Amino acid sequence: MVYLDYSATTPVLPEVLDSYNKVTEEYFGNPNSMHTLGVKSHELMMSASKQISELFGIKESEFIYTSGATEANNMALIGTALTYRRYGNRIVISKMEHPSIYGIAKHLEKLGFVIDYVDVTEEGVIDFEDLKRKVTKDTILVSICAVNSETGVRQPLKTVRQVIRKNNENCILHSDMTQAIGKVNMNITDVDLASMSGHKIYGPKGIGLLYKNKNLVLTPILFGSEEGVLNPGTPPLPLIVAFSKALRLALKDLSKKEEQVRKYNEMIITHLRKYPDIKINTSKYCIPHILNISLMDIKPETFIHALESDEVYVSSNTACSHGKRSESVMNMYNDLKRSETTIRISLSYMTLPSEVNDFLNSFDKNYEKLKNLK
Ligand code: PMP
Question: Which of 41, 90, 262, 338 could form a cystine bridge with 294, CB 3.0-4.6 A?
Answer without folding.
Answer: 338
